[in-house]
Amino acid sequence: MRLKMKLILSIIVISMVFFTGCSRNLQASKTLNLIVNKKDITANAMPIIENDRTLVPIRFISEELGAEVDWNASRQTVLIEKDGNSVELKINSKLISYNDGSDYQLSDVEPQLLNEDEDGNLRTYVPLRLVGNALDIEVEWNEEENNIYIDSKKEAEETPPSNIKIISQEKNQLITGETYLQIETSSDYPNGSELNFLLMDKGERAGFIVARGEEIEGKYEFTPKIEDNGEKILLAAIYDLNGEYIEGEAIAVEIKVDPLVELSGVKDDDRITSTVDLGVDTNFIPLYVKYEMKEIDSSYEGDENLTDVKDPLGSFTWNPMMKDNGRYLIRAVAYDIDEKKYYSDPIRVEVARDRILTLSGIKENDNINNSIVLSTNRNFDVSETEYMIRDVNTGIVSTLEKIPYGDYRWSPGPRDSGSKELFVRVVDRGKTYYSDPVRVRVDGSPKLFLEGIGPGQVVNEETPLNYNSNVDIENIKYIVTNPKTREKRDILPIEGEAVFIPQEDESGDMKIEVQGTYGSSIISSELVDFKVYQGEFYGPEPIVEKDKFIPFISEYALDSYDEIGMSAALQTAQAILESGWGQSIPVDKYTGVLSYNLFGIKGEGTAGSVTSNTWEVYNGITYRVDADFRAYNDLDESWKDHKALLLKLDRYKPFTEVMYDYTKGAWALKRAGYATDPNYPIKLINIIKKYNLDELDKIEI
Fold first, then answer.
1. Does the reported pTM lie above 0.70?
2. What is the pLDDT of residues 219-232, one digit of tens each?
3. Which residues contact 247 (CB under 8 A, 6 or more apart)?
């Protein structure tokens, strides 16, 4: 898809480019003459040859034939009226309107402003074939005489503007909801050609792609948005692999969506005993949806009963708790671009959940030789949670930990070794419940775990040290080793606290462990490799002033939209969100070298990589480590690499199928696992709405 983009932002202005004399391989013919009703008007209206196409000045021909011609400078349109009929042309637009929009036609060459007259005014030139169709008169070219004859007394034999016909809709058809789009054609097209369907505003003659693909005569789903309502132009256009327009057709249609929302996944009088996947069926594309669960006997109203924002094209898994047991009215709420709500009919259901209580964090027959986190999976509230262990051989039951609720990190000790069963006991309103036991094999030999410094951590300041053990350890000390000098030093706790303080001669790779005694045995933790760096750290850098980021980055987005069809609005919003408005571009933390990495992609880029921070967890403690982030020679390389990532990975295929639409695209990215933030799509959509970025996707043809 290659389309002319129209960017209408208050901060960006794209000027119309006019053509003069010899530009774009234009040349005036020295021998081609223009004869209108036997009158030679070549001197006033000399034809032009452009890329082997003959262009003629429409005003002089029309006025010579008695037609009225009106030029609208602000809209760049020419209106020709004669005998109750009208034709409207727009400069640099292939779309031609007949009789105030009752019919449309696509020209293979746009009307253009060319060749100044003696007063310095530019003239509107159109393809010769268009003159006959527009004015319904015969146009003849005599090759031997090299003359063009236009005769108003003879009716034109209308030449079809293209071999395409939209067969899924008729002219002026009413579209009220989900439908399909399809064309038929008698032409063959080069490999890689693409069909685009556009829905365009009649007055502005600009609009948005609503479907696209390489199956030229295939069926394409189309569901309008609420904001599409009104008289529109449905346009089908075919482009070759290089994005050059081949041919197309346009018809007038009317979008009239009376919003309908239907809740799916449940039906009246369903009895819900487990989780249920809810969804919505609509006759329009919502911005997002929410689900309302209102207990029939409840007096609560408003947002208390609503979920948070959900995917309008995906499903939502509702997992009611036991306390939710009862009778409910469930309905879906769909929101349009203006946050207006549309409700489904309510569905009456009964929630009847059985009690669920299981121990998680382990599974049957696990071998446990390290600390683990035990969790309780339940669907009811509790006042007491007790994690317990049973010796399989003796039957003796012991308490590991008793807490009101929550997880428990267990470090099994020597007496825990052997074949064991783990389970959880909970108390709910005075009643006690037990989970099924999970049998495991436990190795509880004495262990010591270092906390405070993790593998690969870079330390440049005083760092508190700590330890954890599954036994009572005495005589704790921390041993720091410098591999270069092989020197070791001990750090002893003072009043129970120990701190690693980098020494002047400590730099680069280091090792640390914690050591203590258990009875007569010396217990050591694993040796942890880390780094000491006492120089300056460099942080993220801006690439442009924040208030200039949208006009700056939208140029990249428009180029990509033109080249691959990915919504420019969505691309711009991603760049804003992921680079912090261009203010947080990773640099090498040690050298300050700028990565030009707009999207924080890890690995190696065209210019290698830079070292920056990421997060890891060691023995339950979160800390920063070095990570390689892709580096590029410029922003253009970063931009293209990000697009290649989305286009080439199989998991993003559902996204590429809808990437022309920012709403569908944002939610498809979430379903593909692009970001871990569950609110990523709505953050993108809110940025697009706030800054009117959807105008970046508006196109003319």
1. yes
2. 999 999 999 999 99
3. 106, 108, 161, 162, 163, 164, 187, 237, 238
